């Protein structure tokens, strides 16, 4: 953890489209996206954009005659084997075909717009996908996974279950489609922001994409893209955690996502709170197609097409235009980023599939010195932010083989590299305050297999072998009023192994479904390298659409590579850290009221131990940090912290089976962590109440109107040490938290209402969509914290930090 962070990490936050937020806890020495309360685009920009948008939305739908194509595959949900002869229907039109010997189907003549696709097969429960967007620009791909079920009784109609539970994770699991991600008001197509509509999921502040799941910190999550583990899913990521500014994963690539908020199965490790699985859609198998998009913060081009007769490819390139917006708003920061993504599939035989996955980003952060006429706030932003440039990529390949006996074998090989470049200097003297040039790498080999071993029993097992490394050159100056007794300066090159073995068995006996798993994993550089994680999940089908569920187990996570790189006098000082650990219990009930409506109630309890605290200030638990830009963990640490999170969640979801969809989530929770004294105190993510209501209505095939209301109780805030801040501020432009009063204050309640309007047009062989997204329609000044300032306008030295003001944005996409 950066000691300069401890000496003060608050700074003004960004204007739109990064909604500003509080800077809580002890964080990093420079928020690159400072909050400018009430910041709005330059005069005339909103007016011109509004007139242009009104003209576009008023364009009539072209005449009839346009049709779309829906393609896909029908497979066994357990074995992934193709199902030949399944009946596939497009609803409500009633078009139907039978799947071929490879489970594939193609339905032409579909009326463009949102449709549902259903598959049925003898001996299986029917499956249905709603929210399938049939486009005129290219075929729409749908995979329908059918679960084995008893034979139907003559005359009895079995309806498709839209909320089919995952067999190995019956609790705390949610699946979202590409359409559901795009349509969420206020999320601007960002996966992390979309997940905030789900129970138990919070974000630290509006200007960041931190995922805070059931009281855990942003470093406790794992991310997978087409089965390949990726270190982060955001631009301008915080080193040592995974939060950042905006989504790195392009929404145009997404087929669907699966999100585990707890109790996840043994095949997933090195995470304490959640696992996010992102599956990309296949490319166009007919011809080359494209998608030109202008979003809230970037412009992008996506291309896809066939790869011979047995494959497909998908590629995108995006460039931000935030630097131009921030220049127009006369802010000293100029964030600029590129990202690219590639996916390719090749199926040489009916049972083999090879997939290539690549994703990368270039993040550059410019800072413009103030002019003499610039105000105090401008100068404060300039003084407090740090240079934050990053280069990151992941390249991976996977092979999947299906056998005729219902077995599935998978192998994956991937390489990830992230280059972090942080720097901070005093404006007046030019004195270097902070420098961090780090390169983190992962070379990962994984293999797994699963097979049915008896009726109602399925066995899965796998291994992981990861070679992790970091080259770090770190300098942190000890400042007056700060906690560091002396400067931290080290250069380190570390490499170590992270092996893992796991196995699980799935049992189905009547109404009882059970999953028993065991995971063994190690971190070779640690003095105590090994950990064992038993896990259990149960689902009891009580009838009438009601399931009772339970999950529990042990979960471990390695200390960050940055923490393991720290040296003092040439000696690594954090090798005595054990793997971080928590024990989880989740229990609940799931009621599928009808095929399209689900209500779920769950309670959870998480007990943490062996959590790192700062050796220089043992009051500070590392779990309380990482909700700001910069880095976390670059100093000596001790495994003396504890933690506890508990709560209850109520969730209701109505799928779009006709014209209306709805998601409602309420979470009651407590999140507490301790320093070395063992006394639990409210963490930097402790909010007692969270209510999210999201709804939308389809008007014909062209229009959709959505709305989202978010109401949160105040978050725990650590107050400022005014005396220490007064000594640090002249040099760093930042204050110092009073770590003897962790979580002693609460921010006011937070209420935000977002609205989204979307219009689609379907033309012959191309289509277009335009949206208007209105954030904080009520223009409510949500105060999310306070920062230390010496601006004469604030005699108490506390400047309120407000969240995003009313912010209209619009974007469009043309698919061809």
Task: Report what the structure shows.
The chain is mostly beta strands and 816 residues long. The model is unreliable at 1-32 and 34-49 (pLDDT under 50). It is built from eight helices and 44 strands. Strand 2 and strand 3 form a beta hairpin. It starts with a helix and ends with a strand. The strands form eight sheets. The protein has a 22-stranded antiparallel barrel. Strands 9-14-15-12-13 form a five-stranded mixed sheet. Strands 4-1-8-6 form a four-stranded mixed sheet, with no helix packed on it.
Query: What value does the average pLDDT take?
Result: 89
Low-confidence stretches: 1-32, 34-49
Helicity range of the residues?
A: under 10%
Rg from C-alpha positions?
26 Å
Number of strands: 44
The main β sheet shows up as:
22 strands, antiparallel, barrel
Number of helical regions: 8
| Overall outline | globular
- Terminal residue distance: 48 Å
């Amino acid at each position: 953890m950066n000691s300069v962070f401890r000496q003060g990490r608050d700074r003004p936050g960004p204007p739109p489209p990064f909604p500003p937020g509080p800077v809580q806890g002890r964080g990093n020495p420079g928020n690159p996206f400072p909050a400018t309360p009430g910041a709005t685009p330059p005069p005339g920009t909103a007016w011109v954009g509004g007139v242009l948008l009104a003209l576009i939305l008023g364009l009539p739908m072209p005449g009839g005659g346009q049709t779309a194509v829906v393609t896909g595959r029908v497979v066994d949900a357990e074995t992934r084997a193709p199902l030949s002869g399944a009946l596939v229907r497009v609803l409500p039109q009633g078009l139907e075909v039978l799947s071929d010997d490879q489970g594939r189907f193609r339905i032409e003549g579909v009326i463009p717009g949102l449709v549902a696709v259903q598959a049925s097969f003898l001996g299986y429960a029917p499956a249905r996908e709603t929210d399938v967007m049939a486009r005129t620009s290219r075929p729409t791909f749908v995979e329908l996974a059918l679960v084995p079920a008893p034979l139907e009784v003559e005359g009895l109609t079995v309806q498709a279950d839209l909320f089919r539970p995952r067999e190995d994770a019956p609790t705390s699991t949610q699946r979202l489609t590409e359409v559901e991600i795009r349509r969420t008001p206020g999320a601007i197509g960002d996966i992390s922001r979309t997940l905030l509509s789900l129970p138990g999921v919070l974000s630290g502040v509006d200007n960041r994409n931190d995922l805070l799941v059931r009281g855990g910190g942003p470093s406790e999550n794992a991310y997978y893209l087409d089965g390949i583990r990726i270190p982060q899913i955001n631009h301008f990521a915080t080193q040592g955690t995974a939060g950042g500014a905006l989504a790195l994963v392009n929404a145009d690539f997404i087929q669907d996502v699966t999100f585990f908020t707890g109790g996840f199965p043994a095949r997933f490790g090195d995470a304490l709170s959640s696992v996010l699985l992102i599956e990309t859609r296949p490319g166009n198998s007919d011809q080359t197609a494209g998608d030109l998009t202008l979003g809230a913060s970037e412009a992008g081009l996506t291309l896809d097409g066939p790869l011979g007769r047995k494959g497909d490819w998908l590629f995108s390139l995006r460039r931000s235009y935030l630097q131009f917006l921030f220049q127009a708003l006369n802010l000293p920061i100029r964030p600029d980023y590129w990202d690219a993504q590639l996916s390719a599939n090749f199926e040489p035989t009916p049972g083999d599939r090879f997939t290539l996955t690549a994703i990368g980003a270039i993040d550059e952060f410019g800072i413009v010195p103030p002019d003499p006429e610039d105000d105090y706030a401008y100068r404060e932003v300039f003084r407090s932010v740090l240079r934050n440039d990053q280069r990151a990529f992941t390249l991976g390949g996977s092979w999947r083989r299906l056998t005729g006996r219902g077995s599935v074998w998978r192998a994956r090989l991937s390489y990830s590299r992230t280059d972090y470049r942080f720097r901070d200097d005093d404006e007046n003297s030019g004195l270097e305050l902070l420098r961090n040039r780090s390169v983190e790498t992962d070379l990962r080999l994984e293999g797994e297999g699963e097979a049915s071993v008896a009726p109602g029993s399925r066995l899965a097992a796998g291994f992981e072998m990861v070679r992790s490394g970091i080259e770090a050159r770190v300098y942190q100056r000890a400042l007056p009023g700060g906690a560091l007794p002396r400067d931290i300066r080290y250069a380190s090159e570390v490499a170590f192994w992270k092996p893992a073995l796991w196995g699980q068995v799935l049992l189905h006996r009547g109404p009882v479904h059970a999953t028993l798993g065991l995971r063994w994993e190690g971190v070779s550089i640690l003095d105590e390298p090994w950990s064992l994680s038993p896990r259990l999940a149960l689902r009891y089908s009580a009838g009438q659409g009601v399931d009772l569920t339970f999950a529990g187990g042990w979960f471990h996570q390695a200390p960050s590579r940055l923490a393991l790189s720290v040296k003092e006098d040439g000696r690594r000082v954090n090798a005595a850290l054990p793997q971080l650990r928590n024990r989880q219990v989740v229990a609940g009930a799931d009621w599928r009221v009808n095929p399209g409506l689900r209500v779920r109630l769950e309670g959870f309890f998480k007990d943490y131990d062996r959590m790192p605290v700062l050796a220089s200030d043992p009051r500070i638990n590392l779990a309380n940090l990482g909700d700001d830009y910069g880095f976390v963990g670059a100093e000596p640490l001790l495994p003396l912290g504890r933690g506890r999170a508990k709560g209850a969640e109520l969730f209701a979801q109505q799928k779009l089976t006709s014209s209306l969809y709805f998601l409602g989530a309420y979470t009651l929770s407590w999140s507490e962590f301790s320093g070395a004294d063992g006394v639990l105190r409210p963490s930097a993510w402790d909010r007692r109440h969270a209510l999210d209501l999201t709804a939308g209505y389809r008007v014909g095939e062209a229009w959709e109107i959505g709305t989202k209301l978010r109401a949160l109780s105040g978050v725990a805030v650590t107050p400022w040490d005014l005396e220490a801040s007064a000594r640090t501020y002249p040099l760093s432009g930042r204050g110092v938290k009073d770590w003897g009063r962790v979580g002693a204050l609460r921010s006011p309640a937070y209420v935000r209402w977002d609205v989204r309007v979307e219009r689609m047009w379907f033309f012959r062989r191309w289509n277009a969509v335009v949206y208007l997204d209105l954030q904080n329609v009520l223009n409510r000044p949500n105060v999310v914290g306070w920062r230390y300032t010496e601006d004469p306008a604030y005699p108490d030295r506390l400047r309120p930090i407000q969240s995003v003001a009313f912010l209209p944005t619009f974007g469009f996409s043309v698919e061809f």
